[in-house]
């Protein structure tokens, strides 16, 4: 297949296995994001694809070719790191074209490619400047240009926006998305920032403790998490969790936490098969509805964010977060009522954490 394929890849250091039996297919043209907390193995996985780290077992294929034993410069890949790693004494033009010069490419062809990349990244006016004369965002564009000019099959990005401030990160996310749409090349991108993952990816791989937890579209990772870890890691504020069981209350189904029964609306029919089973209910803040028919709740804190506000509530022996519009006023210590949209809740097995029911 074109793209990247990992077959039963294992990585161990001094006999300690940190990644085991990883199988992953990255389709040609995908923007795949490796997402997870620090130490989950995402950079290790990227470095094995790049050839910077050897695999202990298994194989890696790029565009149908087994590259497991090949050096990085033989894999038809280009990598952009968190550090820009630009040559300070060279102009932007020379920084971008240096790799091509080392490969023996003719000067005219180098100049042509550098000019094309300059236009693509909108850095043509900067080509004769030195890195010290550039902003952080401009330096990152140059680092990306140095990768683009090689015209590889696969681009590998290792947290390339981590050193930028919030506005520059947002701007560069837009630029990277546009770049992918124009080039259509395969991109493998490492980040711990879920906003980057959700906005950039065509597919997200969520990792934890050296293992793949879920591979899916950003929408499905958010709306249909495979397990409790994915649900807790993706989303800010995080998903609310309540331990307990579904119970029948007349014609209605409620969630009994042991300290109170939370009303549910729009409960899917398949939830009835789970009544009485110990489980964990997950509901994101936007799935918590303020309604007079809900359970009595005490407002602990309201956090306005501009278009929304997040309200921390004491509910049935737990603290939950609900989302509201800015027009509603919540005062600490006041009472309100809350219920859960059962059509969008997620139910997890209380022991394994695996999803039993998703929206």
UniProtKB/TrEMBL annotation:
GO BP terms in the entry: carbohydrate transport
Identify one Gene Ontology CC term for this UniProt entry: ATP-binding cassette (ABC) transporter complex, substrate-binding subunit-containing
Alphabetically, the GO molecular function entries are:
ABC-type transporter activity; ATP binding; ATP hydrolysis activity
InterPro entries in the record, alphabetically?
Answer: AAA+_ATPase (IPR003593), ABC_transporter-like_ATP-bd (IPR003439), ABC_transporter-like_CS (IPR017871), ABC_transpr_MalK-like (IPR015855), ABC_transpr_MalK/UgpC-like (IPR047641), Mo/tungstate-bd_C_term_dom (IPR008995), NA-bd_OB-fold (IPR012340), OB_MalK-like (IPR040582)
Q: Which UniProt keywords apply?
A: ATP-binding, Nucleotide-binding, Transport
Superkingdom of the source species: Bacteria
Indicate the segments forming the ABC transporter domain, all copies: 4-234
Classification via CDD domains: ABC_MalK_N
Classification via PROSITE patterns: ABC_TRANSPORTER_1, ABC_TRANSPORTER_2
Task: Please report a single Pfam family linked to this protein.
Answer: ABC_tran
**Family the UniProt entry places it in:** Belongs to the ABC transporter superfamily.
The protein's name is: ABC transporter domain-containing protein
Biological source species: Thalassospira profundimaris
């Amino acid at each position: 297949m074109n793209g990247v394929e990992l077959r039963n890849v294992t990585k161990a250091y001094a006999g300690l296995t940190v990644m085991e039996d990883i199988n992953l297919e990255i389709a040609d043209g995908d923007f795949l994001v490796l997402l997870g907390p620090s130490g989950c193995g995402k950079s290790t996985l990227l470095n094995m694809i790049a050839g910077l780290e050897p695999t202990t077992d298994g194989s890696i294929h790029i565009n149908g070719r087994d590259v497991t034993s090949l050096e990085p410069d033989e894999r038809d890949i280009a990598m952009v790191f968190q550090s820009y790693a630009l040559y300070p004494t060279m102009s932007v033009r020379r920084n971008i074209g240096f790799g091509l010069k080392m490969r023996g490419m003719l000067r005219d062809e180098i100049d042509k490619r550098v000019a094309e990349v300059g236009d693509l990244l909108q850095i043509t006016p900067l080509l004769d400047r030195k890195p010290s004369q550039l902003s952080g965002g401009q330096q990152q564009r140059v680092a990306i240009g140095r990768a683009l000019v090689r015209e590889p099959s696969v681009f590998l990005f290792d947290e390339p926006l981590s050193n930028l401030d919030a506005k520059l990160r947002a701007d560069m996310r837009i630029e990277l998305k546009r770049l992918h749409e124009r080039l259509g090349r395969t991109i493998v991108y490492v980040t711990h920032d879920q906003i980057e993952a959700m906005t950039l990816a065509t597919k997200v791989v969520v990792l934890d403790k050296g293992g793949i937890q879920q591979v899916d579209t950003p929408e499905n990772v958010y709306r249909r998490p495979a397990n409790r870890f994915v649900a807790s890691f993706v989303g800010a504020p995080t998903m609310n969790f309540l331990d307990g069981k579904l119970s029948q209350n007349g014609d209605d189904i409620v969630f009994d936490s042991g300290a109170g029964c939370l009303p549910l609306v729009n409960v899917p029919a398949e939830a009835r098969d789970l009544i009485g089973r110990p489980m964990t209910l997950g509901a994101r803040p936007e799935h918590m509805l303020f309604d007079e028919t809900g359970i009595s709740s005490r407002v602990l804190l309201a956090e306005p964010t501009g278009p929304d506000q997040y309200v921390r509530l004491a509910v049935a022996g737990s603290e939950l977060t609900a989302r509201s519009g800015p027009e509603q006023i919540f005062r600490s210590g006041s009472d309100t009522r809350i219920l859960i949209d059962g059509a969008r809740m997620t139910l997890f097995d209380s022991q394994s954490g695996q999803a039993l029911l998703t929206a």
